[in-house]
Write a structure and sequence with these properties.
The chain is mainly alpha-helical. The chain has one domain (18-204, 224-465): Growth Hormone, Chain: A (Up-down Bundle), CATH 1.20.1250. Helices cover 79% and strands 0% of the residues. It contains 19 helices and no strands. The protein has helices spanning 3-6, 12-18, 22-34, 36-42, 48-75, 84-102, 110-137, 142-173, 178-203, 221-240, 243-273, 280-291, 294-305, 307-324, 333-346, 349-369, 374-402, 413-437, 445-465. Helix 3 (22-34) runs antiparallel to helix 9. The longest helix is centred in the middle third of the chain and has 32 residues, at 142-173. The protein is globular and about 75 Å long. 52% of the residues are buried.
Length: 466
Amino acid sequence: MSKSNSDQKLPALRLIAFSAIAVPLAAALQPLLVFIPAFYAKDLGLSLASIGLLMLLGRLWDAVNDPIIAILSDATRSRFGRRKPWIAAGILLFGLATIPLFFPPSGTSLWVLGLALFVFYLGWTMIQIPFSAWSGELSAQYHQRTRIATYQQVISVAAMLVLLVAPTWVDQIDPGNDRLKIAVMGTMVLVTLIPCSLLTLWSVKEPPLPRPSANFEAASLGGRVQGLGRELVQGMGLIFKDPLMLRVLASDFAVVLAQSIRSSLIVFFVISYMGLPQWASAIFLFQFVFGVFAGPIWLQIGYRFGKHRTAILGELVQVAINLGLLLVAPGNLALLLALTFAQGLAQGSGNLMLRAIVADVADKNRLASGVDRTALHFSVFSLSSKLAGAVAVGIALPLVGIFGFSPKGENSPEALQALHIIFALGPALAHLVSAWMLKGFNLDEEAHTTIRQKLAERDALSTAAE
């Protein structure tokens, strides 16, 4: 990696431009988790169990793609770099799949929804994995990686905030028109996709291409396919034998599980349990207003205490907030708003720190193995997040259904109470597990600085020997 990329602090405007691709990604993700399941169930008549199953299958498909795209991206050699070509191709698939997902005709079947989800997730992976690896390569410095991740998180939260203005506005002028709400959000995704993608692709240069792995030096196509297989087995074996990476993955799985349970149930909670349908979108909007400030706050805490300690603190704060939801009674908007305010300020603290830690772990493993597998590390990290999201939807929606909750018609007090408990206690327990997994984590700033020094020394010796 060149000095300009690894040792210099990138200007704020350059980081904002580089992070722009997070706008359409965030704008599509939140409706997919929060609004689309409810819309397809209520307006198109698909069952919650079927939607949950499709979401789970889509994420499993995503899980298969993640490491393959990562290895191919790490091995790509082109005049455009090794990350940009994959991002550009992913943008095309992502945009094409957004249309049927957000603008479904009446009578849309499970098959159409499933196909759209599968193409959507493939495009998402082709963007997300190379972009994440590229982000980790922008700087070799411990705290600068947290800063880069913070910019991306703030951009994502700001995008979600702007996006959520639309359904809130629709709720006020035409309550219950979920089709219009989904269409407006889909339009925002498509309108931002091309300009934001161009900003990302052209704002920052990729670092110089490293020497290809020996597994990809075979000239024939068959040799390259075999090399792909060997690299997949060797790389995944190294990652899953690393106790530090396993702890990061487990912590991330738990935090995303918590967030996804909350996201998949919040519309039902506000409408059915709270009895406040006009606030269903506004609650999310309120949270993200304050969520914009969360990234800079936790960045400063991270500078002081380090990444893993800050992640633990953020997760424990989340535990307290979600336990507080158990005290919310139907119609008690004031307490719900107070907890939502706190949720906004604590939002994403664990995600932010864990994402910044992944590149540090990749450095440690590169020092041990001699092979740069940055994208593969991020693919496994992404895999844990996506599986957690799928498990949350695949469990939370059917679980509230088992206890008698229905998104249509009247619900018994017992069914509403079950919805309340699952909505509050599920995320609280998951956040607690996330914090516990990072206890005693030993890859801190001092340890990472030593790793980077050894990598620099080895790279210098290799260059001198050529």
